[in-house]
Amino acid sequence: MIAISATDKKLTASMDIRFGRSPYFLLTDGVVTRFISNPYCLDEGNVAPRVVDLLKKQEVSKLVTGEIGSKAKIRLDEKKIQIIMLSEDKISLQHVLKKMNLSR
User: Are 28 and 1 in contact (CB under 8 A)?
Assistant: First the structure.
């Protein structure tokens, strides 16, 4: 399963460059695509470990996002979630899926 940090729950939304503070994640296995909410995006303090655990429970093995802090990177590595960083600002989720050859 691949997770993409998202600003909204629609394919025309932009990828959110913030990993832990992203309000949503698009999850896809190339066949089924769905969105989940990030319940920790507005919490105080270091939310990265909880977000990583949330993604691991969803069986995510790859994460596409823009920025990841050092604590998040350590936790993602521990959980064996591959990180794919995109530096493009305001890139749509549709475009990310196309880049990864996951669009239909």
Answer: yes
